[in-house]
Amino acid sequence: MQVQFRECDFFNLWIWLEFETVPSIPEQQYVEEIFASWYFMGKLGGFNAENLQVQETGVDISYFDYDEDAAEESLLSLMHNMAEVEFKGLWGRCWFDLGTTDAIALDILINTVRQFSKDYVEIRRIIIGGENEDWPTPQENPEAAFPD
Prior knowledge:
The protein has a domain at 1-48 and 96-134. Strands 1, 2, 3, 4, 5 and 6 form a 6-stranded mixed beta sheet that branches. It is of the alpha+beta class. 23% of the residues are buried. Helix content is 31%, strand content 20%. The model has no long low-confidence stretch (mean pLDDT 91).
């Protein structure tokens, strides 16, 4: 699966998936669940790169002392909005307002889609940001599927 980045605006970001074959309804539902789960984690502040205490500790986390004060002092990292996932032929797309979430969120999404492509539905590429000449985007941000 190819990963491609185009112009990225975290407050107005389209994410595109190009499939090898037209996805079936159940396959589309899997993709919708991936995006919705990823968004929900971001809405709750899960992608806060300023507070990666366990990751930064290393492999041996036995009896790790989690620093609650450090966690409380880290800046908020929240996604703001998501539109409904759309499908057209070989393409799927979804619009996001990533708000103040950190870029680690995109790494996690890419890792998830890569594994999904290996195990369930083959995806040619994921495109982060920009426009798709095969499927123009609306001029204004789409209505949110999960409003605040």
